[in-house]
Amino acid sequence: MNCEKCGKKAVIVLQHGSLCKHHFIDHFESKVFKTINRFQLIGRNEKICVAASGGKDSLTVLYLTKKYLQENNIPLQNLFALVVDEGIQNYREHTIVDLERFCKDHAIILQKVKTEDEFGATLDKAYPLINKDEHKKPCNVCGVWRRYLLNKYARKYGAETLVTGHNLDDEAQAIMMNIFKANTKIAARLGPKSGIQEHDLFVQRVKPLYLCSDKEVRLYTLLKGFTIQFAECPYSSAGYRHQIQEMLNDFEEKYTGTKQGIVNSFLALLPALKETAPKAVETIKQCSLCQEPAEHDVCNACSMKEILKNAL
Ligand code: SF4
Ligand SMILES: [Zn+2]
Ligand SMILES: [Zn+2]
To answer: What is the pLDDT of residues 109-123, one digit of tens each?
Structure first.
């Protein structure tokens, strides 16, 4: 296969044709920058926090957010990275080493927050104790605490925008999960710019890799020479999401463009979904224990913390 643009050896076959290394990098970066512009993900005078883990998606989005700021003459002091150390042994400590090296090499400020410091135990230790009472899988606990810490500390460090590395595959999975569970309220919060309505306590989440597939991100990081271990979280196969992921990968192999089709259909429906969803701002309260945003009197993160406290 040769590149459709220059005839050199192709490194990837996309739906519209094959591309060489140079033209793929070009195509990928311009897709990300077009996504940022099309959905107005990054503003000129905003302080930007990139939720980073050291994995391929977060390093790619961190690198390209910095490049976007540079190309648009937006001051780089507006940018910092934030990592949550959940305390997942033989996994997170390695990705954090990759992330620290990356931030040092690219002169990006890195802030760190530990689940253990905030909730009293690492995820490894906490989830079996929380499970006893609530039958929660590790990903349920991890997801609730991670979202909580990212929002709280991004806000604490002054960010107005929280950039995440969610890619097309992640979004297609989330859309299908919410459809399977008939969860239109949660589905309305998806999209390249998450959430239904602005709220002082929430930092706006944005997804510049929204239209980039997992395969494209993986290839981009390899071609750019980012040093990553491509490690998988030991809990990743335990979740519902993993089963949806396998199903979608299977479909994609048989019918190319399935994931893109799911996301495109969802984007067409999203304005109507956001319009009809109950406005979050009307239902958001402040948690009586931590003062962070909550749907009920006590937020989900604190509820889990309380169960853990009683079990320790
Ligand atoms: S796979 Fe689950 S436990 Fe592992 S980092 Fe992701 S959400 Fe957390
Ligand atoms: Zn080429
Ligand atoms: Zn709380």
So the answer is: 999 999 999 999 999
The pocket around ligand 1, CB under 6 angstroms, is made up of 138-139, 142-143, 233, 235-236, 239
> What is the set of domains in the chain, with CATH numbers?
1-28 (no CATH), 39-277 (3.40.50.620)
Distance (Å, whole) CA 135 – CA 139: 12
- DSSP states of 129-183 as a string? HHHHHH---HHHHHHHHHHHHHHHHHHHTT-SEEE----HHHHHHHHHHHHHTT-
Show the tokens assigned to 67: 């490049």
- Count the neighbouring beta carbons within 10 Å of the beta carbon of residue 32: 25
As a whole number of angstroms, the distance between CA 23 and CA 193 comes to 28
Instruction: Kindly report the average pLDDT of the chain as a whole number.
Output: 92
Q: How far is the CA of 303 from the centre of ligand 3 (A)?
A: 7
Q: Tell me, what's the pLDDT at 188?
A: 83
pLDDT of residue 133: 56
Angle between helices 123-134 and 138-156 (to 10 degrees): 120
Specify whether the CB–CB gap between 123 and 115 falls below 8 A: yes
Q: DSSP label at 29?
A: H
Q: Which ligand is nearest to the CA of 17?
A: 2
pLDDT at 99: 95
Token pair 């990356």 is found at 102
The one-letter amino acid code at 152 reads: K
| Atom 1 of ligand 1, nearest CA residue | 236
Q: Which atom of ligand 1 is nearest to the CA of 92?
A: 5
The CA-to-CA distance between both ends of the chain, in Å, stands at 59
Indicate if the pLDDT at residue 184 is higher than 90.
no
Nearest CA to ligand 1 atom 2: 139
Determine the pLDDT at residue 134. Answer: 58
Question: Which secondary-structure segment (H or E) carries 280?
Answer: helix 280-283
